[in-house]
């Protein structure tokens, strides 16, 4: 059955276009979401639908809207490609029942996907996703209801909308942009041919701070990169732009602009864990706000040291904003984030926003009048040097169970001569060492990859930990770095 391939991972369902991500499977997924919503009290509020710059994303979004219309559910359908955080805010702003975004985020260009947002704009909860998947498994093509765009529009079941201006207005409510505009910063931006193109320029405008942007135009093949993920190896052109133009900072957003990558003024890649710590420092020290810090198990120990200084709690979750968002809402947390470069903030939707994250980082630089490299040095001086890296490896699906069993059986007393204090299995397999270094091995929830993470006191230690982690899996012959 075709719909057996529809499984929601860490953040939505993603699959290769034309192989599993087909119009039929998208329609099946939309029908399941419609049937779920029909049993809620909020379905009459309608659904906000957006899409990114990937191949046929607009057509897939139209398919979803037509299926919802066939089920009597109104859609607010975006007129153009938009960042995922714009849709997340639109759900809240319009008090909609849910949001749907056609995007595969940072996956390769041959992929597409569906992100499902709850009525608070956050990633759909595990319970919601489980219910939708159950309906998907029972949905037959013959049961799909559909109403064409023209007919549905005449019946006010599909309304074409522009969501950009309400989002931009909301951003200006959250942050005073004038200090950034007047700071004389030279900001280099890489939009990675994704949906975030032009947003930093529109928000900052023409003033003493300038914005120079590359890869602003949409290109669904994402040329020059394996995938539109703002990690070091994909930011060579941004690094070059920063160095050649003597930029103050380089900012990059992924395919749907909910994640952020950063290059300092010297051309160095700043890891997401360093960025997260800087953002937490910004709220605690510069804005003098207080509240819990929510971090996934892949985040840095530096956050705990920072939290101790400012006497705020740190709450740890499995990987994925579907775990972070409920904690942020329940605890009125100050900030939530994860290793992949996604950060969410109190007062906004409990969801990642790469654009807002970049603006907060610029505000930190504007208010402290310090370059990014100095801010990182200050962190290291105050909390010790924390080095981090991640390696991704492909594997044969038929070997998944074997790899899982190997990792379950792995119980090392030491790793590279450092005592292992404990092994945790909250999400994957994490080994905590006595020197506060750690190694984590987990299966990706969105791609056929095994991810290995490590944090240590030096680059050499981190690389040694990554190599040891790979040896635990037994998949050296299938290694394919990300």
Structure description:
The structure is a single chain. The protein is an alpha/beta fold. It folds into three domains: 2-166, Alpha-D-Glucose-1,6-Bisphosphate, Chain A, domain 3 (3-Layer(aba) Sandwich); 175-383, Alpha-D-Glucose-1,6-Bisphosphate, subunit A, domain 3 (Alpha-D-Glucose-1,6-Bisphosphate, Chain A, domain 3), CATH 3.40.120; 387-478, Alpha-D-phosphohexomutase, C-terminal domain (TATA-Binding Protein, 2-Layer Sandwich), CATH 3.30.310.50. It is 37% helix and 21% strand. It is built from 16 helices and 21 strands. It has helices spanning 23-38, 57-70, 84-93, 126-138, 149-154, 164-174, 178-181, 199-204, 236-245, 272-286, 302-310, 321-331, 354-368, 372-383, 400-409, 459-473; strands at residues 13-16, 47-51, 75-78, 98-102, 111-117, 158-161, 186-190, 210-214, 249-253, 260-263, 269-270, 293-296, 314-317, 335-337, 343-345, 387-394, 414-415, 418-424, 429-433, 438-443, 449-456. β4 (98-102) and β5 form a beta hairpin. The two termini are 31 Å apart. The relative contact order is 0.11. Mean pLDDT is 94; it is low at 477-482.
Q: Provide the structure class.
A: alpha/beta
**Major sheet:** 6 strands, mixed
Number of helices: 16
Give the helix proportion (percent range): 25-40%
Gross geometry: globular
* Domain unit count: 3
DSSP strand content: 15-25%
The average pLDDT is 94
CATH homologous superfamily of the largest domain?
Alpha-D-Glucose-1,6-Bisphosphate, subunit A, domain 3
Let me know the number of strands: 21
Q: Give the class-level CATH name of the largest domain.
A: Alpha Beta
Report the CATH architecture of the largest domain: 3-Layer(aba) Sandwich
| Spatial arrangement of strands, main beta sheet | 1-5-4-2-3-6
The fold-level CATH name of the largest domain is: Alpha-D-Glucose-1,6-Bisphosphate, Chain A, domain 3
Any low-confidence stretches, pLDDT <50, length ≥5? 477-482
**Cα-atom radius of gyration:** 22 Å
How many angstroms does the end-to-end distance come to? 31 Å
